[in-house]
Amino acid sequence: MRTGNSSSYLEAKLFEDKVGDFLTSVCLNGTVEREKTLLSGKIRADYYLTEGCSPKNWPPKTAIEVKCRLHFSSISWIYQQYLPLFEAEEVSKLVIIYIARIDNSNLNRYLESLNTSFIELYDFRQDLENKTLVENKKSIINRIDIIDKAKDDFSNTKYTLFLGAGLSMDAKLPSWSELLEALLNQENHTPYKYINSANSESISSALGYSSIITGRYASDGYLKDDSRTEDDNKQIFIDRIRNVLYKKKKYKSTLIEAVSKAVRRKKPAQIITYNFDDLLDELLNKKGFYSVSGNMIPRINQIPIYHVHGMISRDNTKPSNSVLSEKDYHALYSNPHNWANVVQLNALYTSTCFFIGFSMTDPNQRRLLELAREKDKDSDQIEKLPHYVFLKKTPLKGEASKEVNEEHWNEMEYMMSDFGLNVIWFNNFDDLPKILNYISGITNDKPKL
């Protein structure tokens, strides 16, 4: 059962797209810009008509705000936001399009008190909707052109990159499950005397296929050895992870290169990575970036790469740490002021975030996204989806039909909207660098997905 919030996100999203379809159909000779940045980036109009719309007698520089339910507090807030744009002649008319009006008497009295022709209100169904326009009932996955919106946000807002395991796997580093399996390999009866990597599948099954519980199981085998000091056990564990991660001398990844080009083209507020490796760090070394894997003093005029789950450098002389096991995750959960939680929440609150290389199943990550979304619950921003996640459109296993898969992908979008995330779907991992190159402005060749 979906929450009311999830339903409202989807309703607002669908309605805004429907209004966009309508505007495109009636403003045939004019430009309809979506999510237009105004007043030096302080305000974003849902739509902006540079040449206006002659069939509706809307003049050039008309801004459009879309609201499912219009009430006194929302229109008051919108008016106060747009008044400076009207005075600066950046907007000549504000059109508010809605489905329903709430608190009608208060709203009417407020409009009368303004005594202005700057604002016009339209009931979409009664006043605007073209009855001959065939309603597009396709999945929102297929009809929302979210890539261009992401490109605009990348260019015009402060942004943060969140990077997950998919980034490192593109460089042929081991996956999470492969890392855990390799950690069970015996070496001088470490981590266990009899258990080894041949038992990893059975162990994962016995532990409910939970990666963090399996991580605890593997790490405990190293840390409980009483024949060595605790520090020695930790170092052996870290060294084993390093050996598993860095089997090769050189690593090539078109995705990591695309990320590197994107952040050099336009500097982010920060990069937040869940990966242990330092492949991206080395590419960006001496280019105004620096690595952080714990509480550190910020560097002036340099951009942090936060390793919120720890970092294990190829250089074994550098300090290393890891968040791998259930115990490590519990430490993150229990302390809301943990530096890793703080930097992630700050990024979600203050910037447009792009999530690359994630399956979106990390429990702490989902908790932080939900917590960040709570602040928008009672504000005008609740109808906005401020962030983006790149997800592979993987069909369900078995004999799932096309209709079943489409419904599943729709449901994934509903779920991600709860976290304030727009989904950018891709079919093959080779598409991901191309999409990123387009969004970051490296190329103008829009990928056909």
Under CATH, the topology of the largest domain can be stated as Rossmann fold
Task: Bin the strand percentage.
Answer: 15-25%
Shape: elongated
The low-confidence parts are 130-144
Mean pLDDT figure: 84
Topology summary:
Blueprint: H1 4-26, E1 32-38, E2 43-49, E3 62-70, H2 72-87, E4 93-101, H3 104-114, E5 119-123, H4 124-128, H5 140-143, H6 146-156, E6 159-163, H7 165-170, H8 176-183, H9 200-206, H10 211-223, H11 230-245, H12 254-265, E7 270-273, H13 279-284, E8 289-292, E9 303-307, H14 326-334, H15 339-350, E10 352-356, H16 363-374, E11 387-392, H17 402-418, E12 421-426, H18 431-439
Parallel strand pairs: 3-4, 4-5, 6-7, 6-10, 7-9, 8-9, 10-11, 11-12
Antiparallel strand pairs: 1-2, 2-3
Helix pairs in contact: 1-17, 2-3, 8-10, 10-14, 12-18, 15-16
Task: Describe the protein.
The chain is of the alpha/beta class. It folds into 3 domains: 4-137, Trna Endonuclease, Chain: A, domain 1, CATH 3.40.1350.10; 154-171 and 251-439, Rossmann fold (3-Layer(aba) Sandwich); 176-245, no CATH class. The protein contains 18 helices and 12 strands. It has helices at 4-26, 72-87, 104-114, 124-128, 140-143, 146-156, 165-170, 176-183, 200-206, 211-223, 230-245, 254-265, 279-284, 326-334, 339-350, 363-374, 402-418, 431-439; strands at 32-38, 43-49, 62-70, 93-101, 119-123, 159-163, 270-273, 289-292, 303-307, 352-356, 387-392, 421-426. The strands form 2 sheets. Strands 8-9-7-6-10-11-12 form a 7-stranded parallel beta sheet, sandwiched between helices. α17 (402-418) links the parallel β11 and β12. α10 packs across α14 (326-334) and α12 (254-265) runs parallel beside α18 (431-439).
